[in-house]
Design brief:
- The protein is α+β, with helices and mostly antiparallel strands and 134 residues long.
- Helix content is 25%, strand content 35%.
- The protein is built from four helices and five strands.
- The protein starts with 11 loop residues before the first strand and ends with a strand.
Amino acid sequence: MLSISQFQVGMTAEVKRSFSSDDVIKFAEVSGDANPIHLDDDYAKQTMFGARIVHGALASSLFSTLFANKLPGPGCIYLKAEHKYLRPIYLNEDITFVVKLVEIIEEKQRLIFETVALNKDKKCIVGSAEIYIP
């Protein structure tokens, strides 16, 4: 991992991912979130979404993946996250998750990121995160 002084505002990292029915079922089992909008095709067809959708918490967990593995990297500590869910993410859609460094607080060893999940050019999730650099 870089030292806090080596980070620069504007640095980015991204990962592309889709979520299968099996992914959603496994997340429901681990989290206990068995909302039928995620698990029941017949129920989901009757909702405003028209089909099953991915848990927001499952989708937003990809930001943690980026922080831990790409930017800032192994050893960082995820202190704070805020997410706003703008659009549903459906099963098997290709989503691009992007984190962008927007502020460096050297005296506290903290990095502030913008976070966004995109389906093509449409924003599905927007937010921010605060990361501690040991």
